[in-house]
């Protein structure tokens, strides 16, 4: 159970971390609030005080996942001055992630697949994350001197690699996606 000195923020973070791990490992529909309560070490009353319903908890888990995704992308590209390398850094990040023992594909695609038809808020969160990822890559493309459409093309390669790696159960898809991305980037930047 939560200790007496723990802040509301710390309790919420612990609940979100516990729920995120369970949802990602087993699926959103397969995990109930009682299981989240147990994993987080809080009372059911406290869990519902923080998250009145499962949808609110799922949305907070997705928000935390998005922050980790964006931080990971930034960390992987940090210190890279070459525009080509900054564009391809996303595939380095994906390779690192795909090799984790807990990798189960994109949490946003998983959430959309399970809940998107019944939860407009979850569908919107998934769509917004995908749009933000494309926008991020489009900004990098423009900064490198390429057309912004390169961002959407690279995002599609990254998304396909995530799905393929999750279904196939191996990280090899990222190498194939990176190879295709290198061809696109080099063509867009006028390199051979």
UniProtKB/TrEMBL annotation:
InterPro entries: Homeodomain-like_sf, HTH_TetR, Tet_transcr_reg_TetR-rel_C_sf. Keywords: DNA-binding, Transcription, Transcription regulation. Residues 9-69 form the HTH tetR-type domain. The keyword DNA-binding applies. It comes from the Bacteria. It holds the Pfam family TetR_N. Residues 32-51 bind DNA. PANTHER family: HTH-TYPE TRANSCRIPTIONAL REGULATOR YJDC (PTHR47506:SF1), TRANSCRIPTIONAL REGULATORY PROTEIN (PTHR47506). This is Helix-turn-helix transcriptional regulator. It comes from Cellulomonas fengjieae.
